[in-house]
Write a structure and sequence with these properties.
The chain is an alpha+beta fold. The chain is built from 20 helices and 34 strands. The protein binds pterin cytosine dinucleotide and CU(I)-S-MO(IV)(=O)OH cluster.
Length: 797
């Protein structure tokens, strides 16, 4: 059954108005914006240290080639050049290769071969970045071109060249194989099916495109042995651990500082070769070294999203019940397997698909291939590849409804998990926590005017106009942890928070999570306000400096609220527990007789006799009871019992122009249930941003490679970012089903809309084209693809 959150009710009449003081439910303006809109943000590019040098990277022009020789003499001869670093020199320090998140290896600087276009081959350190760039151009590399592999099919074709000939025991281009679910049970269910619905598609490679590219200032002090790295990272604490492990430097002498981060979207989780090079260059020159990546460097070498193929079947009864699902996923991993760790994150959490549907049994198999493309795979609001899971699921749902000749909303209604089924065990082993799926769906259908639209659509079809409506409903697992099941490089996934209340009742909260634009400085203060009644304006939130914040696994997989947010609530409760003792002392009653209401303790039965949290704070430093340790500060580590499972229902209506293949969004309705909303404005901002990215992916955005392995989409003329002009308007609604295991009932939300959004747009266009018999057009739904499908009735891949 459903459990509600443990938020404490306000008891007495003098309780503060929580929303007014910036607690839960307050859309307080983002405090970080005060510096951003005044140009006072502090990004890595703004960091300038005395004597600082500049590093540039030489990248491979070829996708696959043997390196025959590298001649750096002309580069060394350029005045102002301080260091030219090659893979061979890195190898002497055992740093030519580094481990990836999946326990594969990735080249830092190429020694034997280049394996994708844009791969790091050498780097130059000089007095200014322009000299460094010129010197990169002066390096002469002799390549012997090898045949490139640009898709998984080529990777396993007979006679395919071996990409990873560096790995002993690697005889083919397969990076991993994996399966989950009940194969026999699934086969048995398919044998009983009335209808089997099939679908194949490709979720194309895309790029997260943060406004700020990657970059670092590495500062090794050879007198103290301390390494300080300013870098634009989503996870500074993991980077410190990784640097300690990779470079074998003492961890207490490593300080990672992530100043303001100009967007991450998953792009800034990994440690890239540029970071390792900057650190090594600082060690070798004994000077601070700055590396700022350019757009092409970012687009061509850092973590991409998706590039996954689906081959699926669904077993159905004639009356619209799903009996079983099975699918095979093929991933194009690029040259190095830099995805999330396969034993913990499977192939990402792709098996989180079908968690919101009552599907008795299922089986998923997957295979990943090495190709001559950039590595990555877990980025762009993906929550460890949940994006693919939900896109596959919702496209399969629509295809199944069409194959049954059943209304797509009705088909969902018959299969969505009901409110009384929680906690619900999915066919692939997850346990979902709570939700009101049918309610969300109904709110969405009512808001878009579903029945009226169907009438309008039928009328329009008679006039040759193509109107379509697409639905996407999904629940996704957000907030990794729980340490039993999840870790990164062996480090368990929990998070922590430190809270210190000063004598005057102002507070500092320190967290290991790392905002990149999500507004943690605003919202994490609100959690403390909710627990302690200290106005949010009296709380400052600090993060992003490993010397001064507690250990945390960072911000990705929308885990900050579920994990670090929970740690924040828990540390505030510890503070409140001590404040209660101080209150009892000040009120001269026993602790049992002290009641709490927001911001204040009072004597049970004598409400007017009370002390504020601020008075308790002062007492902690000035008037504590005998034997009590002074001060009011604490920390908390939080290991979540489960992931949080937000739900979303997105519905788009579109009109397709059959003459041009252009499609326009008529309306878009979103209904999100992310549990208790800390800051409703920020939540809506997260959803609108995600729906914009979803629109971009479905409509215009992909990274592709030509037959020679040249990246098409290595600049922002080819790789398109949506602007306000083409982005549709979004009508947002909410449902609140608190997470039963999160201290304030909040669920993650940062990726929901980018995860669930794409299928709504694509399903809408497919619904518009339904009379033509087309079942699938691969994203992005470019006009020429849509036109071709509309005119031939053929699928377009
Ligand atoms: N929030 C809330 N109430 C909730 C849930 C969340 O008020 N019930 C607020 C949080 O307090 C936080 C924001 O919404 O300020 C997002 O919270 P959460 O869902 O916990 O996600 P994270 O903070 O962990 O952010 C990560 C997520 C990911 S994985 C990607 S990718 C992404 C995203 O956030 N990258 C972003 N949104 C982004 N937004 C911006 N501006 N920039 C990025 O790089
Ligand atoms: Cu996968 S993108 Mo976010 O989890 O950092």
């Amino acid at each position: 059954g459903q459990v509600t959150a443990t938020a404490e009710p306000a008891a007495g009449s003098r309780a503060l108005d929580e929303v007014k003081i910036g607690g839960l439910g307050s859309s307080r303006p983002r405090v970080e914006d005060a510096r951003f809109i005044r140009g006072r943000g502090n990004y890595v590019e703004d960091v300038t240290l005395p004597g600082m040098l500049h590093m540039e990277i030489l990248r491979s022009p070829l996708a696959h080639a043997r390196i025959k020789s590298i001649d750096t003499s002309a580069a060394w001869a350029i005045p102002g050049v301080k260091l030219v670093l090659t893979g061979e020199m890195a190898a002497q320090r055992n740093l030519a290769w580094m481990p990836t998140l999946s326990y594969d290896t990735q080249a830092v600087l190429a020694t034997d071969k280049v394996r994708f276009q844009g791969q790091e081959v050498a780097c130059v350190v000089a007095e200014d970045p322009y000299i460094a760039k010129d010197a990169c151009d002066a390096i002469v590399v002799e390549y012997e071109a090898l045949p490139p592999i640009v898709n998984p099919e080529q990777a396993v074709a007979p006679g395919a060249p071996l990409i990873r000939d560096d790995k002993s025991g690697q005889a083919d281009n397969i990076a991993y194989q994996w399966e989950v679910g009940d194969k026999d049970g699934t086969d048995a269910a398919f044998a009983k099916a009335d209808v089997v619905s099939k679908l194949r598609l490709h979720y194309p490679r895309s790029h997260p495109s943060p406004i700020e590219n990657c970059g670092a200032v590495a500062d090794f002090n050879n007198a103290t042995g301390k390494l300080t790295v300013y870098m634009t990272s989503q996870a500074p604490h993991i980077v410190r651990a990784a640097v300690a492990l990779i470079a074998e430097l003492p961890e207490h002498l490593i300080r990672i500082i992530s100043p303001d981060v100009g967007g991450g979207f998953g792009n800034k989780v990994p440690v890239y070769p540029g970071y390792v090079c900057a650190i090594l260059c600082s060690i070798l020159t004994a000077k601070p070294v700055k590396w700022i990546e350019d757009n092409t460097g970012n687009l061509s070498s850092t973590g991409f999203g998706r590039d996954m193929y689906l081959d699926s079947e669904m077993a159905l009864t004639n009356d619209g019940k799903i009996l079983a699902v099975r699918y095979h996923a093929t991933t194009d991993q690029g040259a190095f397997f830099a995805d999330a760790q396969p034993t913990k994150f499977k192939i990402g959490l792709v098996h989180s698909s079908f968690a919101c549907y009552d599907v008795p049994v299922g089986h998923i198999t997957a295979q990943g291939m090495y190709t001559n493309k950039a590595p990555g795979g877990v980025a762009y609001r993906c929550s460890f590849r949940v994006t693919e899971a939900m896109f596959f699921q919702e496209r399969m749902i629509q295809a199944a409804a069409d194959d049954l000749g059943m209304d797509q909303a009705e088909f969902r209604r018959r299969n969505l998990v009901r409110d009384d089924q929680f906690p619900y065990r999915t066919p692939f082993g997850f346990l979902t926590d709570s939700g009101q799926y049918l309610k969300c769906l109904q709110i969405g259908l009512d808001a878009i005017g579903y029945d009226d639209f169907l009438v309008e659509q039928a009328e329009a079809r008679k006039q040759g106009r193509l109107l379509g409506i697409g639905i996407s409903t999904m629940t996704e697992p957000l907030g990794a942890g729980n340490s039993r099941e999840y870790d990164i490089l062996g480090i368990k996934m929990f998070d922590s928070a430190e809270l210190r209340v000063h004598p005057t009742g102002k507070a500092v909260l320190k967290i290991g999570a790392q905002t990149q634009g999500q507004g943690h400085e605003t919202t994490f203060a609100q959690i403390v306000t909710h627990e302690l009644g200290i106005p949010a304006t009296d709380i400052v939130v600090e993060h992003g400096d490993t010397d001064h914040t507690p250990f945390g696994m960072g911000t990705y997989a929308s885990r900050s609220t579920p994990v670090a947010g929970a740690a924040t609530a828990m540390v505030a409760r510890k503070i409140r527990a001590k404040a209660r003792k101080l209150a009892a002392h000040l009120l001269e009653v026993s602790e049992e007789d002290v009641e709490w209401e927001l911001g204040r303790f009072f004597v049970r039965g004598a409400e007017s006799r009370g002390v504020t949290i601020q008075e308790c704070a002062m007492a902690a430093y000035s008037n504590m009871p005998d034997g009590m340790e002074p001060g009011l500060e604490n920390n908390a580590y939080y290991d979540p019992p489960n992931l949080t499972w937000p739900f979303a229902c997105y519905i788009a209506t579109v009109e397709v122009d059959p003459e041009t293949g252009v499609w326009d969004v008529l309306r878009f309705v979103g209904v999100d249930d992310c549990g208790v909303r800390i800051n409703p404005m920020i939540v809506e901002g997260q959803i609108m941003g995600g729906l914009t990215e979803a629109y971009a992916m479905s409509n215009m955005q992909f990274q592709t490679y030509d037959a020679d392995g040249n990246l098409v989409g290595a600049n922002y003329m080819d790789y398109l970012l949506p602007t306000a002009w083409e982005t549709p308007g979004f009508e947002l609604h909410e449902v609140v089903t608190p997470s039963p295991h999160h201290p304030i009932g909040a669920k993650g939300v940062g990726e929901c809309a980018a995860v669930g959004g794409p299928a709504a747009y694509v399903n809408a266009v497919m619904n518009a084209l339904r009379p033509t018999g087309v079942r699938n057009i691969d994203m992005p739904l470019l006009p020429d693809r849509v036109w071709h499908a509309a005119h031939t009735g053929q699928d377009v891949s």
